[in-house]
């Protein structure tokens, strides 16, 4: 899905200054825009005194400088124009970064669904912990529920962590439950999130390492060879 964003930030609105003529307002309008035909987001800034525009900045302009828009402000010295141009360029970078952050979050919320899995952790010879972890999701609202024998219960020894940022614009969360070793098959993790077409139901699936599989194959071969030797 193509992403279109137009953000309007109004800063310094209605800063009142008392002069001999009364009160006047100084207004700053910052706009950051992203479109498919733009290589980078476009940033513009305009400054008004009352209803008169006095300054403007456009990141797509050749000079990328703050420009005067009224005669009386042109008398400002060169160091003034250097300063306001530097500030505008810094504002441009800041607003572009904010827009990219919003774009990332939006794309994650509209794009690929979250991923989730259940892992097993040994606590002692008799106890184990199953951890249900969901990641790559946005927005933050998510539900992780442990079921025992298919039923939702108030399970003791259940631990949750708060939803945390993953560092890439997405979020992560996990819920863990303790149990006696050998009863893992009774537990199911239910994951619900608006990015999923329907809830996920996850169980821990034992996985054998290649070393374990190789050992089993060797034992089977040895047993087969022994049987053949006895028959012969």
From TrEMBL:
Species of origin reads: Monodelphis domestica (Gray short-tailed opossum)
Q: Where is the Ig-like domain?
A: 113-193
Keyword Transmembrane helix in the entry? The reply is yes
Q: Where in the cell is it found?
A: Membrane
Q: Which UniProt keywords apply?
A: Glycoprotein, Immunity, Membrane, MHC I, Signal, Transmembrane, Transmembrane helix
Protein family according to the UniProt entry: Belongs to the MHC class I family.
Q: Which Gene3D superfamilies match?
A: Immunoglobulins, MHC class I-like antigen recognition-like
Q: What GO terms describe the biological role, i.e. biological process, of this protein? A: antigen processing and presentation of endogenous peptide antigen via MHC class I via ER pathway, TAP-independent; antigen processing and presentation of endogenous peptide antigen via MHC class Ib; immune response; positive regulation of T cell mediated cytotoxicity
**Cellular component GO terms, alphabetical:** external side of plasma membrane; extracellular space; lumenal side of endoplasmic reticulum membrane; MHC class I protein complex; phagocytic vesicle membrane
Is-annotated flag, keyword Amino-acid biosynthesis? Answer: no
PROSITE patterns reported in the protein's UniProt record: IG_LIKE, IG_MHC
Q: What name does the UniProt record give this protein?
A: Mamu class I histocompatibility antigen, alpha chain F-like
A GO molecular function assigned to this protein is: signaling receptor binding
Q: What does this protein do?
A: Involved in the presentation of foreign antigens to the immune system.
Q: What does the record say about its membrane topology?
A: Single-pass membrane protein
InterPro entries membership: Ig-like_dom, Ig-like_dom_sf, Ig-like_fold, Ig/MHC_CS, Ig_C1-set, MHC_class-I_related, MHC_I-like_Ag-recog, MHC_I-like_Ag-recog_sf
List the signal peptide residues: 1-21
